[in-house]
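Lab notes, practical 5.
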Amino acid sequence: MPPKQSKTDSRAVTILFKKHKTTVLLMLQPHESLDFTKEKLLGALKSRDIKDLNGDLLPDDSCDIEFGEPVDRADLEKGWKRLQADVKVQNESVTIMEAGLQNGQSIAFRFHKSSEDQDGGFDMDLDSEDPGWDVVMPTYEDDQA
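Output from the prediction step:
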């Protein structure tokens, strides 16, 4: 009996999730939510027995993961901004397709640390340009070492 082949959707996209010098490739379906994507990313990191990335401890909950998109997709060195589709509106979960993520696209991720502000609410950084994304892009010199 031939081995059972898994059924994969030809519309699947491969996304490169980046933090510091780590890149995690995940094959995802366009209809999957960003919340589910965060669960898969956290699961992939934990399956490799990773406890922290560049000093940032892995969160226990995938809700503590934030995604960032490149300021300029053609030049990742220009930095990252928070993925606008990652900002939830009334508990709606945005899909990969609705977020505009494409096959082969690089997405930054970080572990969110919300802090209470003086009014008792939560201070969440939603600025479009955020210097807090820790992504180190490899260079030609890195390959020669």
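Observations recorded by the TA: Residues 115-130 have pLDDT under 50 and may be disordered. The helical segments are 34-47, 140-144.
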